[in-house]
Amino acid sequence: MKAWFEDRGRGPVEIQPGRAGQFDVVIDGTLAYSRYSTGRFPGDAELQSL
Fold first, then answer.
1. Distance from CA of residue 18 to its chain's centroid?
2. Rounded-to-integer distance, Cα 7 and Cα 29, Å
3. pLDDT tens digits, residue range 30-39?
């Protein structure tokens, strides 16, 4: 996921460990995507829109 964003000129991207199964995308300090809220990982189209 880090590489996905950085390959598209977004970054730098930091990876922070979380609880088991946690997957959040935070952009400029704002939560942009939460696996906890959606119950799934984001698709490419969703990542692109972030």
1. 13
2. 21
3. 888 888 888 8
* DSSP code, position 16: -
Average pLDDT over the chain, rounded to whole? 82
Residue that the structure tokens 């189209």 belong to: 45
Q: How is residue 33 written in tokens?
A: 């995507």
Residue 34: C-alpha distances to residues 5, 10, 14, 38 (Å): 16, 19, 16, 6
Q: How many helices (H) and strands (E) does the chain have?
A: 3, 2
Interatomic CA distance for residues 42 and 48, integer angstroms: 10
Does the bond joining 42 to the residue before it have cis omega, within 30 degrees of 0? no
